[in-house]
Amino acid sequence: NVLGIERIINKQKATFYIVTLAVSFFANYYMSYMICIFSVLYFLAYFFSHYSIKEVLPTKPIYEDENGEIYDRKIDNVLYSRFVESGLLFALGSFVAVGLAAVALVPTYFCLKACSATSGTFPSDYQFYNNIFDFLANHLSSLEPTIRSSGETVLPNVYCGVITVMLVPLYIFCDKIKARERAANIILLAVFFIGFNLNYANYVIHAFHFPNDLPFRFSFIYSFLLLTIAYKALVNIRSFSTKALLGSGVATVIFAVLVQKLGMKNATEETIYLSIAFAVVYTVVLGLMKKKNIAQSAVSLLLMCCVFAEVAVCDTNHFVISQQKPNFVNGYTEFRELKEKLDTVEGTDKYRMELTNINTLMDASWFNYNGVSVFSSMAYEKSANLQHNLGLNSNYINSYIYAPQTPVYNAMMSLKYIVNNDNSLMNDQLYTKIAENDKFVAYKNNYYLPLAYCVSEEVEKWITTGSNPFEIQNDYWTRATDVGDVFDKIPAASSKTENIRDDGDLVSENFTYHKEISDESGTIILKYEIPESQNVYLYADCTTAESIDVYGTNGLSKTQDPDDPYILDCGYFEKGEIMTVEVTIPANKDSGYADIYAVGLNMNNFEAGYNKLSASAMDITEFTDTHIKGTVKVGATELIYTSINYDEGWEITVDGEKVEPVALGDALIGIDAAPGTHTVEMTYKPKGLMIGAIVSAGTLVIFIAALVVLHIVKKKRYAKAYGAEIKESAAVEATGEPTGIDALMAQDLGKNATVEDAEKLLDVPDEYEQNKQDPTETLNRADEILNTQKLNLKEILSQISDDSEDEE
Length: 808
Prior knowledge:
Shape: globular
Strand content: 15-25%
Mean pLDDT: 88
Oligomer: single chain
């Protein structure tokens, strides 16, 4: 991409830039957004590093009046301005790249509108995250990398090696590199530092959204800039004096000592001493590179070994492995064997299932089954909201994780099998054992409902907000079935506390607690006497707690993470049995709030509702991940409920006529249909896919056509120029007098002037030798410039020198 920008400015060629940017969009649209911001900044920085705003292209025409005087047209200074033409070509190339990638970008745009990644509010007040010294110190070695914004030390990961820290100051003072180029690159680094540190800029660079717990995602661009700057200093290492190299090493050591003395968020003693050690090593190696009597290949190899040594010594000890590989892969073979048995029983793999205890946030992907649990930045935000309110472990943004749930939820979400992998208590009335092996036991949901079935139109009034997930599930069930409450509340029979004031309201479902003695831990113990023989469920939301332990006389023993509240299936209790909930409050929390709900399943009302819903289930005849077809009988005042996430990409027809879906609970698809038996067909095409495909195809055709036309035009121009050159050569031979650049050299330097004589006009006499410039190419290029611009010999040769540097 960077090389493409340079080709646009230097040669007015955009093909490479277009292709690389389009590939970038296909590879990662999020990073590409940041790359686009960088591209604009780099275009400006590179142009003004190498050219003046008044620079005109060599193709600018020249005019002669009737007296033979050469004159300019002012409009040509705009039409043939290098800045204007390069800028227009850069903008056009960017649009073409977007057009080529539209088939991916347009559907992604519509998808992003439904997920949390685009929800955000521009900050009202400015905020600086870190001081400059902490940021600079984070360039040293052996630092703890930042993973999450909720960590103790949150700094951008910009470490690129101690040698980079040493080379950047050398770059700043390198006379071999133009001052304006050095200034432009340092300004670019400063811009990205502001992006790291100022909340306004950080918000914009992250696509107008603060990242969910993974900060500074554009640090790769800063690191790229840092490495390119270091490289430019390294290739000019012989231009620095021994004193300058030694000074850079000493300065790095002094900086490390200052970090140790003043303190820094992320630096340890190891950071300081390893940084000093490698600064000494690199100073020696750079000194060797400067010596002409030592083989450069050997020193380069030595430098590479030192860089690898730094990575091995300073980085590998920060590779944190919190889980061993067996914790992830153990059980894979056993699960797949079990899944194949279930597929054989079903005659298909098109059914939903879940584990009672997941190993990863993406077990469905790892084990390859159709589940409920999701963790994705592209997850539907409304679905995450609903799943959280239904009692799943969810961050309310982009993830929701299944744990053994109520039969109401399992029926709503069309879960057919539950695979027990943690000895959860399974009620024989609700589940039937189907298959097992050494690690897993598969249970069939006795009250399974298919992907779609008919419910009362009252479901459109379903209330999905509130702190009690049982009320939300109950509201759905009663509205869908027109039967009574499916959950019976179980109040706490008694409470007991340690270092917690008991004002008598701890037995209520919602209460506030206060410590008796600050800075000491406390405990709240609630006991529930089960009034009827029934399956019991608990939801405890107390995020200020240290732990929540639940145990009962039925053999129940569970510990729940207070940070992630979710419904807990406590199993079947006989009438009169006791369930105990113990909430431990840490010493650093003197007060807090808790919602603790316990309910029992009203089996009579649940079965009555289930029988009604199962009688109106859709008979699915065709099923793929993008196409569903089936028949269903819809009663009066009913609609079709599906457990499919609402997405505008679904096209739905009822008896061949297109209908618009209804958003049930603001997150699931519902279908309106008149009473009677209907054929329902659902086809998924990502919204915007067709538009994007048309734009991409059209752009590709135009792009290829433009390349062909340009090739033909260039070929004709070359043929014309070649013919003119032959005629000019013949004229020279006939007259014996020099023409073009030869005439100009003869005029300024004498008849027998050579290229070497012309080079003496330049500020850097060995410029052509360094760039291996062919004398013939030099003269040809000079002729081109002479034919289009009124310049003297020195100006022409200087321009050739600049062009050579650009190509390097």
